[in-house]
């Protein structure tokens, strides 16, 4: 076994991969790289997708009362697929390779490749959707089509797409659409199903929030915990270990910085997601990857999620849009009118994370801090799992009939569960507990009331002190 493969396999034990199959290249694709993690590294594409034609849910006592539910509307947000690095990272990659080539007089057995390495990520491709990203979204579209086939196949003209102004979301939407319809028996797709609506106000709200840009995004003091950890003992240990694996000459060890190590980590992540292998990965051990993963989570936690209330507050145009569209679907469904059965939005990690925070998802009981790394080994807020490439969140509305196995209690149960419209919340295709009711299946009115402040009292201009969307790209 090569040294590179051996070290990648060590890294991949983070997810407890069956090492008996370590010779199979598929197991290289199981590592965690924060928001640079491909979707099908955390979600097996070999998993059998069960059609959601009818959902049967137990009642409170798990035995007597059941709800027989049929879906009639899906309302989702999907992150774009695997993309090329941003221009900043591409330049850093070139700089690190040049710096190490000049500095290493006697390379270690692991670093002999560096001098001949050529950056595979051209400047002109920065942030563009990668071929692997298109495949990722195509497969995701197929999975959505399989799960909601009964709903979507017969109503293909009643599906709507929204995208941000970035080309990678257009391309992701197109790939998803192709995957979705690939499992349907009909080729008749209406124009409204094909043409996406561009809306940065709901999908890139972070770009138009002046207060957020000034106080958080472009303000290093807002990332105090991130920088404390970056300069703390855990990261210093990682940097020193990586240095020793790169060079045998101790005199040049000081030339390799923490920023260089983060760049090497990025090369490893992107090359693995593009090509399934990377010589750069051999410089990291499992423990190193856990530390770097926490460092990245600190940044996302404080900059985009629970660190500051503003991050969740500024997502209210999106929350309002989601619920207004569900309100419309509920009203039209009950009135027997035509309505949109599927709504798919394509956006960014910067869109999903504030939404998670607004909905109260993946919130740890203790904030992520530089000082509590050890206590957060099993944290809920792990960006590699909740917001990888192609991450997705979907509200699904159901009409439910209430049935009781005990006829004497049937009248009481009908009174108690008079409402017939319920909702499930899926994240990365898994139904999760909804904070509004503490269950997987909740009354729609209860969920709407729980988030009513964000829906009905959203004043983006007042929250963000701005009324114009500006272009601001992710890194």
TrEMBL record:
Entry keywords, A to Z: Cell membrane, Disulfide bond, Glycoprotein, Hydrolase, Membrane, Signal
One GO CC term on file: plasma membrane
A GO molecular function held by the record: bisphosphoglycerate 3-phosphatase activity
EC category name: hydrolase
Pfam family, one: His_Phos_2
Range of residues in the leader sequence: 1-23
Catalytic reaction annotation: (2R)-2,3-bisphosphoglycerate + H2O = (2R)-2-phosphoglycerate + phosphate; 1D-myo-inositol 1,2,4,5,6-pentakisphosphate + H2O = 1D-myo-inositol 1,2,5,6-tetrakisphosphate + phosphate; 1D-myo-inositol 1,2,5,6-tetrakisphosphate + H2O = 1D-myo-inositol 1,2,6-trisphosphate + phosphate; 1D-myo-inositol hexakisphosphate + H2O = 1D-myo-inositol 1,2,4,5,6-pentakisphosphate + phosphate
Subcellular location: Cell membrane
Disulfide pattern: 69-400, 268-281
Enzyme Commission code: 3.1.3.62, 3.1.3.80
SUPFAM superfamilies to which the protein is assigned, alphabetical: Phosphoglycerate mutase-like
PANTHER family, sorted: MULTIPLE INOSITOL POLYPHOSPHATE PHOSPHATASE 1, MULTIPLE INOSITOL POLYPHOSPHATE PHOSPHATASE-RELATED
Family (UniProt): Belongs to the histidine acid phosphatase family. MINPP1 subfamily.
Stated name of the protein: Multiple inositol polyphosphate phosphatase 1
Annotated organism of origin: Mizuhopecten yessoensis (Japanese scallop)
